[in-house]
Specification:
alpha+beta; Jelly Rolls; about 40% helix; about 25% strand
């Protein structure tokens, strides 16, 4: 079992949470639930309700879209982070490539935390905005 202190240190290294103050990371760490997946286990399935995000602590996962592996994610990477902010169905299936340990953060408790601490939302918006800007820049370069 991962201690709260270890969880906070882990979260500090996750891109999605880089703009979040440490005292709020303690609250996020307390919300997180450990979940283990054996090799080949489905972490989330395309089309399912997106009601949580997963943070890979140990192991690797494959992102599968339309039957093709399109990405591999490892420690300190997020899976399904948009589900914390919208209620859209999952856009891809994610399968454990190795025995994998994740921290799961459920949407409802996270929304409660956002309501109590608006600065958490500002930090997340900043991170997501940077990601979107990078994706748009990359897409423009691909088109040129």
């Amino acid at each position: 079992m991962i201690s709260t202190v270890e969880r906070v240190l882990f979260l500090k290294g996750v891109d999605f949470f880089t703009e979040i103050p440490s005292e709020l990371l303690v609250s996020v760490a307390r919300l997180a639930v450990e979940e283990r997946f054996d090799t080949g286990a489905v972490v989330l399935r395309e089309g399912d309700e997106g009601d949580c995000l997963y943070l890979v602590v140990e192991g690797r996962v494959a992102v599968v879209f339309e039957g093709r592996e399109v990405a591999h994610l490892g420690p300190k990477e997020c899976i399904g982070e948009m589900s914390l902010l919208d209620a859209e169905p999952r856009s891809a299936t994610v399968v454990a490539s190795d025995p994998t340990l994740c921290l799961r953060v459920d949407r409802e408790p996270f929304h409660d935390l956002l309501a109590e601490h608006p600065e958490l939302a500002r930090g997340l918006i900043s991170v997501l905005s940077r990601r979107l800007r990078t994706m748009l820049r990359d897409q423009r370069q691909t088109l040129v």
